[in-house]
Amino acid sequence: MTDKKIRRLPKWLKRPLPSNETYNKTANTLRDLEIETICTNAGCPNRGECWSCGTATVLILGSICTRNCKFCSVTSGKPAPVDSTEPDRVAQMAEKMKLKYLVITSVNRDDLVDGGASQFRDVVNKTRQNAGAIRFELLVPDFKGCPDRALEILDSAKPFVFGHNVETVPTLYHKARSGGDYALSLELLQKAKKRWSEMPTKSSIMLGLGETDEQVEAVIKDLKSVGCDRLAIGQYLKPSPDSLDVVEYITPEKFDFWAQRAGQLGFEWVMSSPFTRSSYHAEK
Ligand code: SF4
After folding, report:
1. Ligand 1 mutation target, pool 52, 53, 279, 281, most atoms within 8 A of CB
2. If we measure between CA atoms, which residue out of 271, 278, 202, 274 comes closest to residue 236?
3. Residue 62, phi-psi category: left (phi > 0), alpha (psi -120 to 50), beta (remainder)
4. DSSP state of 155
5. CA nearest ligand 1 atom 1, residue
6. Alpha-carbon span 247 to 212, nearest angstrom
7. β-sheet bridge partners, residue 58
8. Which residues, including other chains, have CB under 8 Å from residue 69's CB and lie 6 or more apart?
């Protein structure tokens, strides 16, 4: 594929930016309550659609990450101290937006002894208290150095889905996710499944970074082998000029192929399309 073809978005990746009354309400609520979202921090292409439907994925523990993954546009650096008002602000947001399903994620907080797990717990519990019947999907970092402690803390905030993304194939970790460890990510998913056998676990992988089909298939099998139940597969899109280049635009037909393959390999829930992100239509 030539450079020129790579730079031009294929037609299936072009979409209008919807903006309606609900979109504005979502944006205003988030702004008024100073809620960070991964939708804006990672430059997600689905923001128009999701916010227009009144959903957003909350990014807790600040907007500065202790890692510097090259597929992600979240700012890297020294994060601010944990904000004790955050649980209350997220709870107010959920109440105001009348949410029935909320995905919560965070930056990596390698500076915290529990990797930020207690803030996940506090946000969930406070929101449950205020907003009543609401299901939570947690998309957590790898809790490097403290996975057992982190899972123990999350015991008292049991979400509906426990998610952790492997993001890409292991051979691309050195350039895409250099602070991560593929084996550690699989281990975290396995530990979570062992601890909460009834709770679905979920992971996500981006395609288009230069991985081969064999490598993708191997990741799907690895995830299945650690009991992962749900899988999201989407197209990597360069979120900022400093991020990794897209190596390939994967066709919608190929995404359909992977959806089918993951289903054959035993996943109970699969979403696979160019615009799929781990939190995209997560409530479905
Ligand atoms: S897919 Fe997730 S991150 Fe993207 S806009 Fe929707 S809720 Fe936000």
Report:
1. 279
2. 274
3. left
4. G
5. 280
6. 11
7. 37, 104
8. 167, 176, 177, 178, 179, 180
Whether domain 16-272 has CATH 3.40.630.30: the reply is no
Domain-wise residue ranges, the chain = 16-272
pTM across the whole model: 0.94
Q: 57 C-alpha to center of ligand 1: Å?
A: 6
**What 3 state SS string does 5-37 have?**
HHHCCCHHHCCCCCCCHHHHHHHHHHHHCCCCE
β-pairing verdict for 135-139 and 161-163? parallel
Do 230 and 269 touch, CB atoms closer than 8 A?
Answer: yes
Grouping H, G, I as helix, E, B as strand and the rest as coil, residue 133 is: coil
- Ligand 1 neighbour 279 (Cβ under 6 A): yes
Q: What is the pLDDT of residues 115-147, one digit of tens each?
A: 999 999 999 999 999 888 899 999 999 999 999
Check pocket membership of 104 for ligand 1, CB cut-off 6 A: no
Q: Burial letters for 152-178: b for 16+ Cβ neighbours within 10 Å, e otherwise? A: ebbeebebebbbbbbbbbbebbeebbe
- pLDDT tens across 146-161, in order? 999 999 999 999 899 9
Query: Which of 7-11, 26-30, 74-78 is predicted least confidently?
Result: 7-11
For ligand 1, what atom is nearest to the CA of residue 275?
A: 1
Q: Which of 242, 245, 259 is nearest to 1 (CA)?
A: 245
Number of residues in the chain: 284
